[in-house]
Amino acid sequence: xxxxxxxxxxxxxxxxxxxxxxxxxxxxxxxxxxxxxxxxxxxxxxxxxxxxxxxxxxxxxxxxxxxxxxxxxxxxxxxxxxxxxxxxxxxxxxxxxxxxxxxxxxxxxxxxxxxxxxxxxxxxxxxxxxxxxxxxxxxxxxxxxxxxxxxxxxxxxxxxxxxxxxxxxxxxxxxxxxxxxxxxxxxxxxxxxxxxxxxxxxxxxxxxxxxxxxxxxxxxxxxxxxxxxxxxxxxxxxxxxxxxxxxxxxxxxxxxxxxxxxxxxxxxxxxxxxxxxxx
Length: 279
Ligand code: KMH
Ligand code: ZN
Hints:
Largest sheet: 8 strands, parallel, barrel
Number of helices: 9
Distance between the termini: 23 Å
CATH architecture: Alpha-Beta Barrel
Bound molecules: (5S)-5-amino-3-OXO-hexanoic acid, zinc ion
């Protein structure tokens, strides 16, 4: 597949910074995540980006909880399962990387440290190398998370060290307070700077989620939406994850771009097709 490939829509339904008391629509248990996976698939999604919480709503990166989450998604859909290795601020690098032993199809690799609100999301070279080595060990495809312009240079350095080969799939996360702002100019600059052959998506934060998605649809990129990045459907109206996916699918369709099925997305991303037993 090439140029204007079908649109891969990633849904990030639960984030470490979004708590259940902020919205009734956060699928923070495996059961809720499974239901959301089904709805997101029906709405046109291809990938689910996974963070986990305990039943009391607190963040966790426990392998057992991620296994439950994986099983819940798989029992309800054929979505590509992508684990977060970013976790939550304050988690140790080992904790963040621990879930890779479950061999999800994909996992995120944030390509550098970044101010994150009043905190620092720490991703030193030793941290990135450790996560990448574990991804290689368990055969997990990375999605490179780029929060700032210098993060692409960091990814190139990791490639020079032999820990990564290009092309890769890259997610441009724009609008985090402390990171690169969500503007079309910044998006174009990053896309111009991508190594040859990379596929990319954009995750606009907050109210920039929809405009960034629209730009990506037009540019031939892919899109990430979901409550991790944005709680609202419109001003004052809380969103459900599947509604955010459905809106992007609808707009893409109007623009003449169909959404990718999960298996089409696997082909675009160079992942193996899902064994029929796992559907
Ligand atoms: N929660 C952020 C500190 C990822 O999922 O890989 C990191 C994050 C990135 O959400
Ligand atoms: Zn995340």
